[in-house]
Amino acid sequence: MNGKLKVLLAALLITSVFTREKICQHLGFGEAKIHGDAVTVRNEVGQPQKQTNEACNYFVNDTLYYWNEQLLDWSPAKAISNFKPQLVTYTDTKNTLAEPIELTWQLLMDIQYRLRYFCELDTEIFASVFPEAIRDLEGKEVIIEGFIIPFDEQGELLALSNNPYAACFFCGKASPASVMSLYLKNKGEHFKADDFKKFKGTLRLNSDDPNEFYYILDNAKVE
Fold first, then answer.
1. DSSP strand pairing (141-150 vs 101-102)
2. How far apart are CA 104 and CA 107, in angstroms?
3. In sequence order, what DSSP letters do the residues of 187-205 get, joined into one string?
4. Do 117 and 58 form a contact (C-beta atoms < 8 A)?
5. SS3 144
6. Strands 40-42 and 48-50
7. What is the dihedral of CA 142, 143, 148, 154, to 10 degrees?
8. Average pLDDT, the chain
């Protein structure tokens, strides 16, 4: 590698560090997860548990926001009382059939947000405001496909993303609702970054824990 190429590579690496820090500010739930500094406390038997303090977690204002794909940032929407989903057309969520529900990322990303202060992190973060069509999916068995993003060398902390790593929710400033936590049913499974897989599992919605993503897939297994 010649000298000029080395200098160029070093400049790109330095630029990416500062860009990443700028991009990762104020992006919402799960930011601590990807940086590896999630806030937890230990219970009496030494197991991690979520640190919460509802008394000092409060909404900053009554404004609803949406993720603006053109500005790659949040934009004010409308008052809470007037909230209506813009793109959601999926209505067959109350069926009682045993078949799992196939989800699309378009559906999951069609949510709005409300700025909330979390005292355990001492910062303001955009919390999710789910429309009824998505709230009806809570606890349902669902199927969704996406790119695997591991967060640790052991591959034990995993996320499923609508976008590959280079264009994902933090690094590429994709929608913060375009990713979900994966908790595998078979703990020993390992995946490579950007593996494209389809998973089945139980969907859990998150509006209160800033150390988790907005969506969580429990008992996930590859289809």
1. parallel
2. 5
3. TT----TT-EEEEEEEEEE
4. yes
5. strand
6. antiparallel
7. 60
8. 74
Tokens found for residue 168: 């994902």
pLDDT at 81 over 80: no
Give the residue-averaged pLDDT of 17-40. Answer: 50
How does pLDDT run across 90-133, given as a tens digit for each residue? Answer: 444 455 457 899 999 999 999 999 999 998 888 888 999 999 99
Residue 218 Cα distances to 96, 138, 205, 208, 213, angstroms = 20, 11, 11, 17, 13
**DSSP letter at 176?**
T
Of 188, 174, 93, which Cα lies nearest the Cα of 140? 93
Q: How far apart are CA 180 and CA 222, in angstroms?
A: 15
Query: What whole-number distance in Å separates Cα of residue 8 and Cα of residue 74?
Result: 33
Candidates 143, 149, 162, 144; CA nearest to 194 is 149
Residue pair 215/177 in contact by the 8 Å Cβ criterion:
yes
Task: Report the alpha-carbon distance of residue 110 to residue 92 in Å, rounded.
Answer: 16
